[in-house]
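Objective 1.3, modelling of assemblies. Example input:
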Amino acid sequence: MDMGSFAQQFAQQLINGISLGSIYALIALGYTMIYGIIKLINFAHGDIYMLGAYMGFVATTMLGLSFVPALIFAMVAAGIAGIIIERVAYRPMRNAPRIAILITAIGVSFFLEYGMILIATPQPRTFPAVFEASVYNFYGLIVNSQQILILVISLVLMAGLTYIVNHTKVGKAMRAVSFDADAARLMGIDIDKIISMTFALGSSLAAAAGVLVGVYYNSIDPLMGMMPGLKAFIAAVLGGIGIIPGAMLGGVIMGIVEAMVSGFFSSTFRDAASFVILILILLYRPSGILGKNVKEKV
Amino acid sequence: MLKVEHIDVFYGAIHAVKDLSIEVAQGEIVTLIGSNGAGKSTTLRTISGLMKPKSGTIVFEDKNIAGVPAHKIVASGLCQVPEGRHVFANMTVLENLEMGAYLRSDKDGIAKDMEDVFQKFPRLLERKEQVSGTLSGGEQQMLAMGRALMSRPRLLLLDEPSMGLAPLLVKEIFHIIQEINAAGTTVLLVEQNANMALSIAAKAYVLETGKIVLAGTAQELASSEAVRKAYLGG
Ligand SMILES: Nc1ncnc2c1ncn2[C@@H]1O[C@H](COP(=O)(O)OP(=O)(O)OP(=O)(O)O)[C@@H](O)[C@H]1O
Ligand SMILES: [Mg+2]
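Predicted structure (tokens):
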């Protein structure tokens, strides 16, 4: 491969990687926010993404909504589902040992996956083409309209989230609760309400990712959340679990690495690459790229 | 203003506070002294709603608040500055103070109270935009107190404000506690530094292994043989 075509291939995979990575980032944000606030690895989070994709499917096919209303519909529905799951499954376990609540999360994951199989059958569904897919060619670099859509929507959502977390009362309360729940309670913060809000926000971002993936790959199925869920979890750990910009960074890095591995080697190694990343990060920097290597304060 | 009657508090099987009763009248500074592990923090945490008593009542301004969740108790006008400050170290000084005013929506009142806090603690004003994790221990204590004041409490609970501070700073903090009290806020002060605490309090209780063993005016206790021996170094 000569230099010119290498550079072109590299640029092409970068584009693919960034759009895939923004999906991971959207899912990873929910993992990291929920971990930040109740120290739970929410294994059902990938299934919320699946649920979001189905909600988008329902909105576009049965309700006949166009893309943006369907996206909002899916985000709201998944947000409500997130609130219910926290209320019903996790809140009663709040003071239980970590392992018990982790197992609960796995249970919720199965419940969503097989519940969806029951309702919607295991058959993949074809996501309607809500967009005219056009393909642009910039000097040999192929970009399609879905990739642009994924990037734009992800950026808007991440900017929105960053604003909420840094500049609104609820967002500041989220940071306060995740830093020190008892101190937050002494400020008059109803931590149950803030935890609900966190689940709602995290779940709606995952739902947005689900809808975007539906639009991109045109196909959704009840188990579609397993692999991206796992990878987004790795992305969250890579960026530093509990750290919001870390989830964005981790997601994009994961996407780029996967795209490069599939582009330059073979897509069969793609999944392996993410697990290699996980192992490396756990070995050499368990607190993640943006995490501080310090123990909890005394 | 605050009447705690016969409360028992447990950590699992550990009986940390036993049949404890204390009373704080409007406008007073009352102190609760005792050595390590006596149950002082547990008592405050129970009053502020972070813990539930197994039995007994806690009446604050005619309402029984025993077992009411902490955030609702704050809303009723009682705020605790926890032992060890517990400032939100990942947030700026300003954001910490904003969290103190979490339940309020009167923008002008909040701005005014923030000015008051900065007047009491000029060092906080200089460090307004600084991330509070980088403040010194004394500054963090000031921030924790300022943050609590932002909720406009009628009763302020302070848990060992002197902990880990240099004598000069302890003096400054105690002076400010008197100032806060003079401005109309009732104070329940937990201390190991009995000398300082008794010097500003009107009434005092001595706690030993979860039980009140002595009570009286601060003067009485400061001159009592038992207290001098155990807590005032002779
Ligand atoms: N989280 C906990 N779990 C179990 N026991 C606890 C816990 N916190 C405190 N205790 C026990 O309860 C008793 C009272 O503790 P508390 O913290 O109220 O004491 P204190 O008077 O505030 O002490 P100090 O002056 O050291 O702060 C102690 O025997 C302590 O070991
Ligand atoms: Mg204590």
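The CA atoms of residues 77 and 144 of chain A lie 29 Å apart.
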